[in-house]
Amino acid sequence: MTFGDVTTEQGLKEFNSYLEDKSYIYGFIPTQADVDTFKSLKKIPAGSYPHALRWYNHISSFSDAEKKTFAVGSCPFKSAPATIQAPASTKKAAGDDDDDVDLFASDEEEDAEAIRIREERLKAYADKKSKKPELIAKSSIVLDVKPWDDETDMKKMEESVRSIGMDGLIWGASKLVPVGYGINKLQIMCVVEDAKVSVDLLQEEIEKFEDFVQSVDIAAFNKI
């Protein structure tokens, strides 16, 4: 589609329709065709020409120096689009065997490139997420270890309890808590990884020290 002389109302109307689905006169970047047409306009397009006005405001945002760097192209008043040449900085150097870069790729090529970039970003995100360490579920437990009587060696009983080693088990602070009649119970804290340590099994292991331990109860249990 072409348009008429933008200095006339009819030409401006055609120009507005022409820009309905376009950002620039040619391709996907501004060219000298945009500069020539911009200079041809006698006044800013009225609000009744929204596409022409949007284009005008966009082109006017470039400085004169920037406009001089636009690719070559002539104003297409009722004529076939002129061949647009890339600026000198983008031309292929003499003897360079690389393929020319198509600055004006088709919509299909642009869509393919957008899909490729999106897929690369999604893959990078998935790779990053897969390398992120998984959250390990843990629990903080306070155990009440009760002795047989007041003659039980509490120091040895604690040493026996702490001698239990399991992957995912860490023993913490402990204290003796009076229960009456001169008898103390051992209250000891530990942190366990839920996937590795069974609390029931831990209680059973402690109760195996029959010379010292009468029973084991859970005083507190918190997920961390």
Model description:
The chain has 224 residues and is α+β, with helices and mostly antiparallel strands. It is 35% helix and 20% strand. A four-stranded antiparallel β-sheet has the order 2-3-1-4, with helices on one face. A hairpin with a 2-residue loop joins strand 2 and strand 3 (183-193). Helix 1 (9-18) packs across helix 3 (50-60).
Give short descriptive properties of this protein.
single chain, 224 residues, alpha+beta, 4-stranded antiparallel sheet, 7 helices, EF-1 guanine nucleotide exchange domain, protein biosynthesis, guanyl-nucleotide exchange factor activity, translation elongation factor activity, EF1B_bsu/dsu
Topology, pairings included?
Elements: H1 9-18, H2 32-40, H3 50-60, H4 64-68, H5 107-131, E1 138-147, H6 154-162, E2 169-180, E3 183-193, H7 199-207, E4 213-223
Antiparallel strand pairs: 1-3, 1-4, 2-3
Helix pairs in contact: 1-3
What can be said about this structure in brief?
The chain is of the alpha+beta class. Helix content is 35%, strand content 20%. It has a 4-stranded antiparallel sheet with strand order 2-3-1-4, covered by helices on one side.
Rg computed from alpha carbons, rounded to a whole number of angstroms: 40 Å
Distance between the termini: 68 Å
Order of helices and strands: HHHHHEHEEHE
Structural class: alpha+beta
The pLDDT mean sits at: 82
Strands in their spatial order, largest beta sheet: 2-3-1-4
Strand content: 15-25%
Report the sheet with the most strands, covering strand number, pairing sense and barrel closure: 4 strands, antiparallel
Proportion of residues in helical segments: 25-40%
In DSSP terms, counting alpha (H) and pi (I) runs of 4 or more, how many helices? 7
Q: Note poorly predicted spans.
A: 77-99
**What's the number of extended β-strand segments?**
4
Keywords: Elongation factor, Protein biosynthesis
Domain Elongation factor 1 beta central acidic region eukaryote: 103-129
Family: Belongs to the EF-1-beta/EF-1-delta family.
Pfam family, one: EF1_GNE
